[in-house]
Amino acid sequence: DVRWSDFGFPGRSGKESTLWIGSEGANTPCHLDSYGCNLVLQVQGRKRWHLFPPGDTSFLYPTRIPYEESSIFSKVNIANPDLKRFPEFRNSTAHVVTLSPGQVLLVPRHWWHYVESIDPVTVSINSWIELDADHEARVEEAITRMLVCAIKSAENPSDGDLWLNPTEVEATSHEINLEYLNKAVSAYLKCQEKSVSGQARSSSTGAEQRTNTLCKRKRREVGCESEGCTLLTQDCSTPKAEELQKIHFGPHLIQVLPQSHKTNVMGAVAVESDCRDVLHENEGEHFGKLHCKRKRLLMSNDYETAAHQMDSDCSPCTSQTPLSTNDLLDCLVNPRVISLVAQLLLERMKV
Fold first, then answer.
1. Does residue 202 surpass a pLDDT of 60?
2. Where are the beta strands (DSSP E) in the chain?
3. Average pLDDT rounded to a whole number, residues 90-114
4. Start and end of every JmjC domain (predicted)?
5. Distance between CA atoms of 308 and 150, rounded to whole angstroms?
6. Alpha-carbon distance 226 to 339, whole Å?
7. Tens digits of per-residue pLDDT, 32-81?
C-alpha cells in the first residue's frame, strides 16, 4: 500500500521496502549508510531522529569496528557523549526531529543518524533509494570486507573479540570476498562506460541539432523547408545522482533545521531510515549484499552495551598500552583510507 511513486519514484512499492518493529527505548547506534538515500514512513508510534550532515563526519569519530557492511558507525554515544574522549563532537550540528504516524522522513545520502523509539510499540517502513554513486561505494565496501575478514581471521576466535556485528552472520571466505570485489569493480566500470556513451550521444545530438538548424536555414533561404531533417533525442531513463538529490519531494516537504535553530518540528516530513528493530525484507537481485539486504542490525534496549562494544577497542593509546589488531584495523579501514584505495584500484583497472 506504500506508494513511493508519490515522492518521484514511479513503480517503487512495498517490494523494495523493509518493515521495522521495535519497543520503547530501542535504538540504533549513530551511523551513516554507504548506499543511496532513504525514505522512511512512520506507521505506528513515534521515533526520535538525531541527524548530522556529512560535513560533521570527522566530529563523529567514524569506525568500522564492529564491522557491518554498508554501515559506518560513530564511536560517540550520542545519548550520553564522553567529551573528554571525543572532544570534537561538540563541533557537530544535530538536526533532531520526532516522527509521528503518517509522516515520512527523507534521509539524504551519507547523513549520520541515531534513532530511538519513544512509544511502547513502533512500526516503520523504509526504502533505500539507489544512486549512481553507489557503484563506487560498493567497491569501497568490497575492499573493506576483504581487509576486515582477512585480518580478523588470523586471530583466535575464542578470544571473545566481538568484531563482527550480529547482523553479519559470518565472516565469508577470501575467495567469495574477492569475487564480490571483482563484480563491484565491473559494475562500476560498466556504469562509467554508459555514462561516457551517454555524454557522447549528447554531444552527437548537439552536433546533429546544429546541423539540422543550418540545414533548415539554408533551405529556407532557397524557399524550401526540409522534411527529412529530424532531431535526435537522448534517452535519460536513469537519473544521475546529482539529479536525484535535486528532486523535489512534493509541496509538503519541510526542512529539518539544526536543533539550536528549530522552533517547531511537529510538521516535519519523516522517513525512518534505520531504526533497526525486528525486520522483514525482500532481497534484491544485485550481487553481494545489496543496500536493501544490508540492514540487519538488531535493536537493543541497552545502548550502553552496543556503545561499549564499539568503544572498547578504541581507547586512547599510551606508552604502556600495546597496539591491538583492532587498533591497526580501525586505521586501515578508515573511510578516508578506503576511498583512496578504491580510487587507486579503479585507476589500475582503467589502464
1. yes
2. 18-23, 27-33, 37-44, 47-52, 62-63, 71-74, 95-99, 104-107, 112-117, 121-129, 278-281
3. 96
4. 1-144
5. 24
6. 53
7. 999 999 999 999 999 999 999 999 999 999 999 889 989 999 999 999 99
What pLDDT was estimated at residue 304?
43
In DSSP terms, 122 is beta-bridged to 22
Helix (H, G, I), strand (E, B) or coil at 19: strand
Look at residue 59 and give its three-state secondary structure: helix
- Which three cell numbers mark 50? 538525531
The residues spanned by each domain of the chain are 1-130, 132-197+329-350
Backbone angles phi, psi at 336, to 5 degrees: -70, -40
| Residue whose cell numbers read 578506503 | 338
Residue 206's pLDDT is: 57
pLDDT at 157: 60
The 10s digit of each residue's pLDDT in 131-160 is 888 999 999 999 999 999 888 887 766 666
CA distance 70 to 113: 14
CA distance 87 to 288: 37
DSSP string, 292-303: TT---PPPBS-H
Distance between terminal CA atoms of the chain?
Answer: 48
CATH code for residues 1-130 = 2.60.120.10
- pLDDT surpassing 60 at residue 85: yes
∠ Cα 89 94 100 (to 5°): 145
How many other CB atoms sit within 10 Å of the CB of residue 18? 23
Contact 35, 142 (CB under 8 A): no
